[in-house]
Specification:
The protein has 490 residues and is an alpha/beta fold. It contains 15 helices and 21 strands. It folds into 2 domains: 272 residues, Aldehyde Dehydrogenase, Chain A, domain 1; 193 residues, 3-Layer(aba) Sandwich (Aldehyde Dehydrogenase, Chain A, domain 2), CATH 3.40.309. The protein is globular. Helix 2 packs across helix 6, helix 3 packs across helix 4 and helix 4 runs parallel beside helix 5. The protein has a 7-stranded mixed sheet, with helices on both faces. The protein has a 5-stranded parallel sheet with strand order 9-8-7-10-11, sandwiched between helices. Bound molecules: 1,4-dihydronicotinamide adenine dinucleotide and 2-oxoglutaric acid (AKG). The site of 1,4-dihydronicotinamide adenine dinucleotide (NAI) has 26 residues, from helix 7, helix 8 and helix 11. InterPro entries: Ald_DH/histidinol_DH, Ald_DH_C, Ald_DH_CS_CYS, Ald_DH_CS_GLU, Ald_DH_N, Aldehyde_DH_dom, AlphKGSA_gudD. Keywords: Oxidoreductase.
Length: 490
């Protein structure tokens, strides 16, 4: 296949140097539907180090001309891609739901967000990239300029199969880098459909390449490749650390977005209906598989019982099912592995003495027996040192923790290795200000759920949630470029 051609069969190819190409391994993996494990969504390439090497070589060669284009010219390709993605929104969203299980409205929302991100970064091609700085030499001109890194490697997870790749690829391209993209194998069909949009927009061959395959082969290959000058990663803590170590060892730039153990604090003066709504939405949408998902619910003792009653009423109303059904609110876990991880955390919670208030089991009845479904789950009597209060579960599990004061709530909220997102529900300005000041999280949200990121604002975490860098909005320029300080004297 050549540039612009659609992959029409259900075998999806790598995209290297402007062509859709099979892996040199001759092998494929299958991508299955977590709502019905017997359904194969598509076959994807099980690529080799040699495939990756060809992609990096193509990117290296293409970047030479790509960086010479004006920002506006690069932006035009992103505008075109946005329009194509928008026209295919329904098909891509449906593929996403079939591949990883989130409900169709959420998948459509995410794809629309991909369109908006592309338009935002297309416009970025027309914005300033430097500053004039007064020199102590009155006859000199001193200013900063930004240059691309070169070839950038992008390693993405399965939980936001459109938004995360797009929020990494779009800024990489607009600032003049070429890209080698390795999506999560679980959502590689959705990724291929996104890359088709870039290809059809006529992006020059080699500027954007996609190689699918195992993390241990293609992901590790990106970490180790001498011609990849920057690596942007979102995923687990463990793999993030491998990316950092490998990048440091060979002097490459890296950026990591990893886990969260995000708290919501419900103060005694909170609007409880609003707080319940946000806890359910922030904790259980996408089956809790967001790095920004609410997982610890820290509630002041005075309103604890009332809040709990309202929360359980809402959780018990949740309709679990195939994300393609219009009455489904919560889909399956994205994979059998993910389901088993969630179930093992639920067991751990019970063993450690937390009290199960709702859910806790795999769902196998009602036509859901072939999928990876778990009940929305709520624990109480959780103490802050329990595993379920410390480790990222990445599933629909809420842990209620009772506290007496806001000071205690903040102390508990900060007591994990993570610091991605945090919410408070309160009407009290003093509480709000203490929370903004003292909460160690990259996103602090007042009277709003912990999940949900605006594309024009910086996104990233503190502590072990990230590499302390930020993605999205104008913050992206910090990763995808290097600053050159220019001193000119006639
Ligand atoms: N922060 C976030 O948004 C995400 C967090 N996670 C967390 O990670 C847990 C496990 O999920 P996984 O899919 O296994 O995440 P993962 O970290 O293994 O996968 C993320 C990406 O890294 C790649 N990868 C895997 N091994 C690699 C290696 N050795 N070198 C380079 N790249 C490699 C994968 O192929 C995928 O593209 C989840 O339960 C959740 O706690 C998972 C996905 C997203
Ligand atoms: O909350 C969001 O919308 C983004 C979450 C995210 O980036 C993630 O889960 O990886």
């Amino acid at each position: 296949m050549t540039i612009g051609e659609k992959t029409t069969t259900n075998t999806y190819l790598n995209y290297i140097n402007g062509s859709w190409t099979a892996s040199s391994s001759g092998e494929v993996d299958k991508s299955t539907n977590p709502a019905n494990a017997q359904e194969i969504v598509g076959y994807i390439q099980k690529s080799t180090a040699a495939d990756l090497d060809r992609a990096v070589q193509a990117a290296k060669e293409a970047q030479v001309q790509w960086r010479k284009l004006s920002g506006a010219a690069r932006g035009d390709y992103l505008f075109k891609t946005a329009n194509i993605l928008e026209a295919r929104l329904n098909d891509i969203a449906e593929t996403m739901t079939r591949e990883m299980g989130k409900s169709l409205p959420e998948a459509k929302g995410e794809t629309a967000r991909g369109v908006a991100i592309l338009r935002y970064y297309a416009g970025e091609g027309m914005r300033k990239v430097g500053d004039v700085i007064p020199s102590t030499d009155s006859e000199a001109l001193m200013f900063t300029n930004r240059v691309p890194l070169g070839v950038v490697g992008i390693i993405s997870p399965w939980n936001f199969p459109v938004a995360i790749p797009v929020w990494k690829i779009a800024p990489a391209l607009i600032y003049g880098n070429a890209v080698v993209f390795k999506p999560a194998q679980e959502t590689a069909v959705t990724a291929a459909k996104v890359i088709e949009c870039f290809a059809e927009a006529g992006l020059p061959a080699g500027v954007l390449n996609m190689v699918t395959g195992a993390g241990s082969v293609i992901g590790q290959g990106i970490i180790d490749h001498k011609d990849i000058k920057g690596i942007s990663f979102t995923g687990s803590d463990q793999v993030g650390k491998l990316v950092a170590q490998g990048a440091v060892a060979r002097g490459a730039k890296y950026q990591l977005e990893m886990g969260g153990k995000n708290p919501v604090i419900v103060a005694e003066d909170a609007d409880l209906d609003l707080a319940v709504e946000a806890t359910v939405s922030g904790g259980l949408r996408s089956t809790g598989q967001k790095c920004t998902a609410t997982s610890r619910v820290i509630v002041q003792s005075k309103i604890y019982d009332l809040f709990k009653e309202k929360l359980l009423a809402k959780v018990n109303e949740i309709k679990v099912g195939d994300g393609l059904n219009s009455d489904t609110w919560m889909g399956p876990c994205a994979s059998e592995n993910q389901l088993n991880t969630v179930l093992s955390y639920i067991e751990k919670g019970k063993q450690e003495g937390a009290t199960l208030l709702a859910g806790g089991k795999r769902i196998t009845g009602g036509g859901l027996e072939n999928g990876f479904y778990v009940e929305p789950t709520v624990f109480e009597n959780v103490n802050r040192n329990m595993v379920i209060a410390q480790e990222e579960i990445f599933g629909p599990v809420l842990a209620l923790i009772k506290v007496d004061t806001i000071e205690e709530a903040l102390e508990v909220a900060n007591d994990t290795k993570y610091g991605l997102s945090a919410s408070i529900f309160t009407q009290n300005i003093g509480n709000m200000l203490s929370f903004i000041r003292e909460m160690d999280a990259g996103l602090v949200r007042i009277n709003a759920e912990s999940a949900g990121v605006e594309l024009q604002a910086p996104f990233g975490g503190m502590k072990q949630s990230s590499s302390h860098s930020r993605e999205q909005g104008q913050a992206a320029i910090e990763f995808y470029t290097s600053i050159k300080t220019v001193f000119v004297k006639a």
